[in-house]
Amino acid sequence: MKLIFSEKILWFIQRLSAITNLFLLLWFVLSLNNFDILNYYETLEWIKVETNMLLILFVFISILLHASMGVSVIIDDYIHSNQKSRLLILKNFLVFLFIFILGFCLYLILN
Predict the structure, then answer these.
(1) Coil/strand/helix, residue 11
(2) Of 49, 63, 90, 102, whose CA is between 20 and 30 Å from 72?
(3) From CA 17, how far away is CA 73, in angstroms rounded?
(4) With a cut of 50, which residues of the chain have pLDDT below it?
């Protein structure tokens, strides 16, 4: 990731995503207290509300991207070989695969 952005920009984006995660997770936890989460149909109706669905998607994507940036920093700092590029490519593939699976699961829930 260092090739695309400077380290200062990456540092700022990571801090911004941490703050975003804080507010999104606070919303998520507080909104889970507003209904009976053990009731399947009530939970499904809560997820089907467009605002809730989008915010849930933002929660997972924000957490995933923040974790991805953190893993990139660890790989950059501690791996000093040709293996680094392969690990970064694998990590990015797994991140986007997870985002795709998450989107597909939400699509299945809503249909």
Answers:
(1) helix
(2) 102
(3) 15
(4) none
CB-CB contact of 32 with 25 (8 Å): no
Q: What values do phi and psi take at 69, rounded to 5? A: -65, -40
Q: Which residue type sits at 23? A: F
* Farthest-apart Cα atoms in the chain, separation: 51
Dist CA 10 CA 2 (whole Å): 8
pLDDT for res 4: 62
Q: What is the DSSP string of 44-97?
A: HHHHHSHHHHHHHHHHHHHHHHHHHHHHHHHHHHH--STHHHHHHHHHHHHHHH
Single pTM value for the model: 0.71
